[in-house]
């Protein structure tokens, strides 16, 4: 009886190992079209930073301090704030890039420790529609698909394409905003047949299993996930080496930023990782234990400076561009054909607290 039990256990172990190896081979064979471009990364990280701005007047008119660098001249078409879930994103057109840019805000830094603790225990709990055996993180999926964010973003993309033509779409975000950006890029390709979609995220957590990563990498090949040094968030939810088909798994392609050298001789390295999504020589080669590495990428801060819990500031002059639903969520919107709005951001500014 004991021999029979050991035989069954051995067979089960072999089947599990075979299944795991097969999944990883699929990921390695994907032909990725993504090419890392340092200049593009330094531009998109500024969009990912700007979406944290809580002064919606400055953000909507693109006059904020974070809006005056490599992104100068950007025209916002839609700014959406989901007050119920403390989410924020914008859609606009970058004339210098000849592209539509979509950016999603990440987790507020005041609550990031609680959020990180939660991610240690998050399980795969949702089957992604239309993808056999693909499972994803319910919370990240819900944040994009089941809030006011998605319909507002898709509406703005349609209007932008109608006016500017079939120009490329670049989607970005930091932290949880990176997770939402990934779901948005996949949504645009699968459900809306967008031809040219490029995704670049910063400090993004894992959002699905290995099967999902395989589907994603085939459907949205022009995707880059940038990870900075020992940033803790890309290590979450945890990845378990021996159970790749049952655990969270990053999709390709990662670019790992890290420093080498001693003393004053420090060299910044930007390593383009392999096509598995879980390159053991990239960020997985170090311990993910730093929150400070999570909050600054390429020298750009990725956090909200407004004190309190998910607070916003808005000038009364922009209310004519807004609509509010029954939940208090609102959208600021302008026609792409109209000139850039000129407002006096020094005039009467009223604060409106937003609940979690």
TrEMBL record:
<dbReference type="InterPro" id="IPR051218">
    <property type="entry name" value="Sec_MonoDiacylglyc_Lipase"/>
</dbReference>
<dbReference type="InterPro" id="IPR002921">
    <property type="entry name" value="Fungal_lipase-type"/>
</dbReference>
<feature type="domain" description="Fungal lipase-type">
    <location>
        <begin position="101"/>
        <end position="239"/>
    </location>
</feature>
<keyword id="KW-0732">Signal</keyword>
<feature type="signal peptide">
    <location>
        <begin position="1"/>
        <end position="21"/>
    </location>
</feature>
<dbReference type="Pfam" id="PF01764">
    <property type="entry name" value="Lipase_3"/>
</dbReference>
<dbReference type="GO" id="GO:0016787">
    <property type="term" value="F:hydrolase activity"/>
</dbReference>
<protein>
    <recommendedName>
        <fullName>Fungal lipase-type domain-containing protein</fullName>
    </recommendedName>
</protein>
<dbReference type="InterPro" id="IPR029058">
    <property type="entry name" value="AB_hydrolase_fold"/>
</dbReference>
<keyword id="KW-0378">Hydrolase</keyword>
<dbReference type="GO" id="GO:0006629">
    <property type="term" value="P:lipid metabolic process"/>
</dbReference>
């Amino acid at each position: 009886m004991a021999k029979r039990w050991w035989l069954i256990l051995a067979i089960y172990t072999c089947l599990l190992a075979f299944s795991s190896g097969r999944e990883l081979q699929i990921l390695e064979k994907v032909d990725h079209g993504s090419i890392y471009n340092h200049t593009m990364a330094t531009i998109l990280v500024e969009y990912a930073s700007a979406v944290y701005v809580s002064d919606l007047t400055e953000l909507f008119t693109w006059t904020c301090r974070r809006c005056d660098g490599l992104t100068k001249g950007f025209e916002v078409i839609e700014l959406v704030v989901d007050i119920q879930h403390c989410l924020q994103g914008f859609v606009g057109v970058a004339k210098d890039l000849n592209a539509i840019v979509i950016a999603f805000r990440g987790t507020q830094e005041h609550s990031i420790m609680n959020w990180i603790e939660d991610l240690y225990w998050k399980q795969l709990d949702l089957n992604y529609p239309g993808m056999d055996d693909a499972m994803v993180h319910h919370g990240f999926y819900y944040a994009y698909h089941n809030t006011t964010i998605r319909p507002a973003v898709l509406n703005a993309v349609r209007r932008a394409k109608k006016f500017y033509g079939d120009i490329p779409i670049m989607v970005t975000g930091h932290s949880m905003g990176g997770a939402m950006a990934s779901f948005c890029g996949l949504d645009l390709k699968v459900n809306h047949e967008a031809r040219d979609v490029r995704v670049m995220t910063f400090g993004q957590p894992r959002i699905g299993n290995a099967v999902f990563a395989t589907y994603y990498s085939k459907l949205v090949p022009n995707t880059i996930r940038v990870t900075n040094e020992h940033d803790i968030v890309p290590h979450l939810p945890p990845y378990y080496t021996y159970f790749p088909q049952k655990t969270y798994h990053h999709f390709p392609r990662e670019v790992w930023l890290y420093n080498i050298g001693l003393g004053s001789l420090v060299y910044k390295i930007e390593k383009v990782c392999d096509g598995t999504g879980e390159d053991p020589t990239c960020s997985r080669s170090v311990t993910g234990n730093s929150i400070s590495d999570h909050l600054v990428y390429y020298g750009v801060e990725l956090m909200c400076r407004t004190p309190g819990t998910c607070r916003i500031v808005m000038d009364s002059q922009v209310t004519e561009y807004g609509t509010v639903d029954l939940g208090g969520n609102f959208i600021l919107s302008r026609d792409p054909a109209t000139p850039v709005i000129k407002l006096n951001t020094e005039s009467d500014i009223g604060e409106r607290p937003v609940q979690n």
